[in-house]
Amino acid sequence: MRQRLLRPLGAVTVMAILGFLLLPAIVVTLAAFNGRAILSFPPESWSWRWFAKALAYEDFRAGFRNGLIVTAWASALALVVGAAFAFVLDRYQFRFKRTLETVLLSPLVIAHFTIGLGFLILAAQLGVARGYAVVIACHVMLVLPFVVRSVYISLRNLDPRLELAAASLGAPPARVLVTVTLPLLLPGLVSGWLFAAILSFNEFTASLFVTVQRTQTLPVAMYNYVREYADPSMAAISVIYIVATAALLTFATVFLGLGKVLNVEQAH
Amino acid sequence: MSPTRLAVELLMTSRPFLRVFVSPAALCALGLTAALAAVLQYSLRAFVPGALEPGGFTFANFAALAKPLYARVFLDTVWICFVTAFVSLIVGYPLAYALVRVRSAAIKAAILVIAVTPLFLGEVVRTYSWIVVLGTNGFINAMLLKLGLVAQPVQLLFTRFGVVAALVHVTLPVMVIMLAAALAHVDRDCERAAASLGAGPVRTFISVTLPLSMPGIVAGVTTAFAWTFSAFATPQLIGGGQVNMVSNLVYQLGFASFNFPFAASLSVAGLALTFVVLALVRAAARPLEKIGPH
Fold first, then answer.
1. Which of A33, B107, B170, B252 is the most buried (most CB within 10 A)?
2. Å from A90 to nearest chain B CA?
3. Band (A87; pLDDT cuts 50, 70, 90)
């Protein structure tokens, strides 16, 4: 009796929470197709013109280009550094292992404005001009924990007997790494890189501190737009963002087993 | 440790690649430490108005933190962080539970994508979306007016309620991931044992599942706290000057007053506060974790 009551109650609760999560995305989509410049719900007329305006806006275009440069470098560097570190973290004991792990994972709990301020001051002290290098270095630190975690979890789930078999057949360590370990780690590496790329492309607070007009990334350009204008161009670009991000994550869930990478699959 | 795992580690006693693989990570750690050290160093320097170069060493910045204006922002920030972490725990738990326990693979994938997407959207898009939801001409007010529930638009933007609602949306994904990771590793046999001894589903949940998921609750609450503390665009745009958090003050001092030493001291104090709160939450949870059969 009780159980029969609990099940629908649970389903309704979960649906209400999913509704809360989806509400902003749905509302912003309605706003993006609004024909007039002033918001009204439901929209009185429908139009694509805000999409056209957003895509033609020069600051957004420049922000998109700058963002791609920063993201390409930051995610690639973070992937190499993070994957190598996850490997030694999983396999070896060495001096300062705990210290190194604590420092590199600390951006998960240190406020982004503190890290952004730190790189801003450091660049000033070292006399480095605030170009792409500073933004990229800052982004690498911010996304590194996500790469380390997803590669580390993949390493934990890897069957060590496969590497043993290769080694016992005479493959030197480098060959085992390239022909056995890396191919088996591919889902973890791809999702780690994907996390890093999405997070870097969307990073805002630290970027606000370390970018200048010339290196301004898309989120910074969007923030400046929201502060100055109220028309639905921003809603249009938000919709593009939401659709692209949800598509990438659906891809990751279906093809890479996102549930496994995030370690949320039932053990048995 | 399993025998195969032991064999792998024995095989790797020569530790191939160790130096090559650790060096880049060590370099990154060095860079991050240098950046944080730069903040700490600036926090102890005097502000010279009109000059970008700070003056000599002083503790004046930290003394100024005690002023009611700044102390108030700190208290407000801590309060908002706690409320956000607590609400996202209450809202996140049922979702994490459903994510782990639902049988259909399609529903599981849908819940996962919907729950995780806000995390990757970035603060600006999320915050803007909430402005459209909460604004005077926004969705909620339009619905309330249409249904005749209110005669005038309700003030939701520029209120603490609005800021917390948007912040919960930000912290919910990470809360769900951490809770789900803990729930996924709860041994279902313990629940079955409780049920076979006559405990109902509610009692089984409270006395078995909940204590066993405690590590996830601690990890979720502490991370939600730290992430809320880190939020900038949400309090800036939704708070609109009416709700100020430490992040807004740091930015304003740095980029409007160019008082980087004071901005740095606020950051250092914020960092210290975050670590104290994280340590306290962990310490408070320790006796609770012992309830579970570990």
1. B170
2. 10
3. very high
Mean predicted confidence (pLDDT) in B134-159: 89
Sign of the alpha-carbon torsion through A151, A156, A161, A167: positive
Question: pLDDT (tens digit, 9 = 90+) per residue, B245-292?
Answer: 999 999 999 888 889 999 999 999 999 999 998 889 888 877 766 554
Nearest CA-CA distance, residue B68 and chain A, Å = 22
Would you say residue B36 lies in a domain?
Answer: no
- Interchain pair B117, A124: CB under 8 A: no
> Which domain covers residue B139, as residue numbers?
60-291
B-chain residues within 8 Å CB-CB of A254? 109
Kindly state whether residue B15 falls inside one of the protein's structural domains: no
Task: Report if residue B24 sits inside a domain.
Answer: no
> What is the distance between the alpha carbons of residues A226 and B131, in angstroms, rounded to a whole number?
10
The domain total for chain B is 1
State pLDDT tens for residues A178-217. Answer: 999 999 999 889 989 998 999 999 999 999 999 999 999 9
* CATH number, domain with residue B235: 1.10.3720.10
pTM given for the model? 0.90
Query: Which numeric CATH code is attached to A57-261?
Result: 1.10.3720.10
**A207 neighbourhood in chain B, CB within 8 Å:** none
Distance from CA of A257 to the nearest CA of B (A): 9
Residues forming beta bridges with residue A34, ordered by sequence position: A46
Domain spans of chain A, in order of start: 57-261
Residue B8 lies in a domain: no
How many helices and strands (H and E) does chain A possess?
A: 13, 0
